[in-house]
């Protein structure tokens, strides 16, 4: 079975000291591709390095919406322009209104810059959105980028927004927490298998509260999707790997 994890954080303090063993466990579980997502300048440098160290690891460089309020985004985008061949996507990027109600306009301005950059470079997007789903979808659709190269990671928006994004061609990545959160089961029911991806968001959102999440656990997501869709697990894994190749390779 060929597995992929399109959104993890190998540079996180809970992961980085154990990263070699994490990657080896993923490899043994059948994971062929891991995309480690950056969130701010130091994180981006780390994921770029990790992608050079491990053959199954790829990286996305990003500006987590809250973090991006604390550094010079224009300067960071300029640094990305010097290594465009070294990353497969822009991520983690997006909007987050949950913890920042005062600077939403600044967040939107930053996201608009990232959308313009993704369009200019023809790079896929791995998108975080929390309590900002409607604005985020609208900005993506208005930007002129290819929605079929957009991954909505851990999307918690209501069903009508899931349908709107899916009908526009956007993709959704599902984490192992689907085992204990019915919302993601709804997303899987509503979205065509050709628009689904697996992720972990490790070290967060694992299949249980006690265990640190890691890329090897994406098999849990395959099992859940297969049960919901009524497909064989191998069929689901193959479909998702084909989705990965279409968007990222």
How many separate domains make up the residues?
1
Side by side, the strands of the main sheet go 1-2-3-4-5-6-7-8
Biggest β-sheet strands, sense, barrel: 8 strands, parallel
CATH-scheme architecture: Alpha-Beta Barrel
> Percent of residues in beta strands?
15-25%
Which class do the helix and strand fractions yield? alpha/beta
Determine and state the CATH class. Alpha Beta
CATH topology: TIM Barrel
Stretches with pLDDT under 50, minimum 5 residues: none
Report the average pLDDT across residues. Answer: 98
Order of helices and strands: EHHEHEHEHEHEHEHEHH
CATH superfamily: Metal-dependent hydrolases
Name the helicity range: 40-55%
End-to-end distance: 19 Å
- DSSP summary, beta strand count: 8
Shape: globular
Tally of separate helices? 10
Rg (CA only): 17 Å
Description:
This protein is an alpha/beta fold and 249 residues long. The chain has a single domain (3-248), classed as Alpha-Beta Barrel (TIM Barrel). The protein is 45% helix and 17% strand. An eight-stranded parallel sheet has the order 1-2-3-4-5-6-7-8. The protein is globular and about 45 Å long. The model has no long low-confidence stretch (mean pLDDT 98).
In a few lines, what is going on in this structure?
The protein is of the alpha/beta class and 249 residues long. The protein has helices at 13-16, 19-29, 41-53, 73-81, 104-121, 133-143, 159-167, 182-190, 218-229, 233-248, and strands at residues 3-8, 31-37, 57-61, 89-96, 125-130, 150-153, 171-174, 196-198.
């Amino acid at each position: 079975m060929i597995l992929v994890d399109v959104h993890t954080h190998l540079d996180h303090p809970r992961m980085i000291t154990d990263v070699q063993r994490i990657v080896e466990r993923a490899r043994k579980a059948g994971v062929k591709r891991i995309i480690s997502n950056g969130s701010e300048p130091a994180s981006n440098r780390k994921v770029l390095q990790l992608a050079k160290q491990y053959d199954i690891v790829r990286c996305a460089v990003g500006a987590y919406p809250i973090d991006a309020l604390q550094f010079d985004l224009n300067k960071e985008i300029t640094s990305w322009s010097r290594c465009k061949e070294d990353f497969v996507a822009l991520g983690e990027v997006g909007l987050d209104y949950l913890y920042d109600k005062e600077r939403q306009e600044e967040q939107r301005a930053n996201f608009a810059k990232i959308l313009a950059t993704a369009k200019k470079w023809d790079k896929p997007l791995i998108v975080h959105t929390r309590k900002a789903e409607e604005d985020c979808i609208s900005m993506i659709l208005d930007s002129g980028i290819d929605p079929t190269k957009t991954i909505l990671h851990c999307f918690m928006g209501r069903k009508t927004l899931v349908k709107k994004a899916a009908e526009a061609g956007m993709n959704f990545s599902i984490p192992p927490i689907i085992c204990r959160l019915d919302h993601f089961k709804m997303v899987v029911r509503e979205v065509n298998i050709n628009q689904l991806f697996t992720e972990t968001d490790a070290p967060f959102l694992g299949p249980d509260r006690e265990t640190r999440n890691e890329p090897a656990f994406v098999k849990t997501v395959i099992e859940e999707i297969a049960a919901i869709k009524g497909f064989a697990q191998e069929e689901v894994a193959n479909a998702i790997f084909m989705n990965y190749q279409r968007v990222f390779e």
